[in-house]
From TrEMBL:
This is Anti-sigma regulatory factor (Ser/Thr protein kinase). Transmembrane segments: none annotated. GO terms for molecular function: protein serine/threonine kinase activity. Pfam families: HATPase_c_2. The keyword S-adenosyl-L-methionine does not apply. InterPro entries: Anti-sigma-factor_SerPK, HATPase_C_sf, HATPase_dom. It comes from the Bacteria. Keywords: Kinase, Serine/threonine-protein kinase, Transferase. The keyword Kinase applies. Residues 25-134 form the Histidine kinase/HSP90-like ATPase domain. It comes from Actinoplanes campanulatus.
Amino acid sequence: MRAASGPSRAWPVLLDRAFGRDDITILRHEITRLLGVAGLAGDRLDGFVLAVNEVITNVVLHAGGRGRVVLRIDGGSVWCVVDDAGPGIPSAFLDRVRTPETFEVGGRGLWLAHQLCDEVTTATGPIGTSIGLRIGLDVVPDPR
């Protein structure tokens, strides 16, 4: 439910597409471009793009190789939702407090997303996973 402060000034969806292994680099560049135009810049832009890259790479490596990414701006934040139809994320990788060991193989993607984003949401189970990444915009651009 939205506060009574007035209607939402949500942008339309900036990106909504299926992806696979061959799309990771293209997506990273496209997301960087779209968010730069929307006003995200500097370390926050780089960090958010890195977090998205880690999540989509996890889909390719661990969740059947294919997924869907949706990018939008709403309420002064950038939201990126990545969905897959994989087997779910093991609980050991969902603990954002646990810092991966130095020589541990894997386990850094979601941990890194939690470090770089203002909010990370995860819904996972045996029929797939949906991860939401949010970062606030310092200046809310006018969607007109």
